[in-house]
Amino acid sequence: METIRAKTHKPEKPKEKVTEFPTMLVQRRIDFQLLVAVLGLSLYGLIMILSASYYRNLIQEAGAFATIKSQLVWYILGIVCLVFLANFKNLHKLIDKLTPLIFISALALLIMVLLFGKTLNGAKRWIVIFGVSFQPSEFAKFALILAMSAFMAKRPKTMSDKNFIVGFLKGVLPMLVLIGAICGLIFLQPNKSTAIIIGATAVVLLIMGGIRMRFASFYGVARAGSALFMILKDQDSLSSLTSFKDPFLDPSGTGYQTIQSLYAIASGGLFGTGLGMSKQKLLFLPYADSDYIFSIICEETGFIGAMFLITLYVFIFYRGIKIALTCRNRFGSLLAAGISFVFIIQAFINIAVSVNLIPSTGQTLPFMSAGGTSLLIYMCAYGVLLNISKDCEPTRV
User: Fold this and answer.
1) I need a surface site. Which of 1, 93, 141, 291 has the fewest CB within 10 A?
2) Is the separation of the CB atoms in 185 and 111 below 8 Å?
3) Contact predicate 127/136, CB 8 Å
4) Helix 173-187 vs helix 91-116: crossing angle, to nearest 10
């Protein structure tokens, strides 16, 4: 009689969970690197706004801390909005539904500016709502990005169709109508630089939306032609071009701001004159705490401080593009790309004006310049971007 030996199985040991170093964690939550970079940049902005504005406030008898107090209110409100939007469940679905209302609201606000806007330096760019000044063009930038992203997300095949009737008339043309409506109203303020930023961002979004390169080329040529026409038609724009070419031709007139900006940058050297030690902010450089704050940063923190700031901008842009490329949702991907590109394009334009690479435009430096509307809108935009980062493919970071 054969003896059947019972097979004995050794109990398997439970697999140990491997805890990796924090920098190698799988990215399934909010992009904390982006969050830290945005908070760091905005705090840096508060410090530089205080430094750049206190002397002017003293001279105007507004109180040394008048500008920074106002900015702090907007900053706290912006942080609240950023945290709320970053943690809102299914935010992209809600935004997608509200996009038509948001876009119509942006158009209505731009029309209100032309009818009831506050005129400053020959332009109507502000409206006063409940005693608070608001710049609708800042809101309109992101309203257009929302509208374009929502439209293209639902029509991927239409946008990439080779057929002219389908690809252009049903895909690109509706986008051109949306862009034209926003840019046209902003141009009438007039605010040509914002219209240019919106146009450049729209080109990137159209390409990422999948349109054929020949259609993108047509749009690019049309935008460049319209921009050239606007410049040649406007005497102020021609004067800006002249002062850009050689600001010393009119050092006390059209070239004054550029010359003072260059003086500030040159004075900074490698390490700067020291925080709070700028001379150009002593009423030599106009808009030292807003349009030309980069010049003050260069003067007080030098080349090292300026390069640190630029690196921070590039890093934030990189994180945004990474979110756009790894997002599972097409609408979220396009929206992330639009937010990232409008951010970096505006930063580049402001810095380029300060160093006289391009004519003066009057654009603020995101998160750095004094201005409540810009800070609040960008805080909200990056709250949305952080929310989108939770819906990305797992990646090693």
Assistant:
1) 1
2) yes
3) yes
4) 40
- Of 233, 248, 273, the residue that ends a domain is 233
The band of 237, judged by pLDDT with boundaries at 50, 70 and 90, is low
Give alpha helix (H) positions in the chain.
32-59, 66-86, 91-116, 136-153, 156-160, 173-187, 192-208, 213-233, 235-245, 256-268, 293-326, 330-354, 372-389
Tokens for 367, please give them: 């998160």
On whether both 137 and 190 belong to a single domain, the answer is yes
Q: What is the DSSP letter of 3?
A: -
Report d(CA 180, CA 108) in Å as an integer: 15
pLDDT digits (tens, 9 = 90+) for 153-185: 888 777 776 776 766 777 778 888 888 899 888
163 within domain boundaries: yes
> At 240, is the pLDDT very low, low, confident or very high (cuts 50, 70, 90)?
low
Residue 10 lies in a domain: no
- Is there a single domain that holds both residue 225 and residue 240? no
- Nearest CA-CA partner of 276 in 80, 43, 64: 64
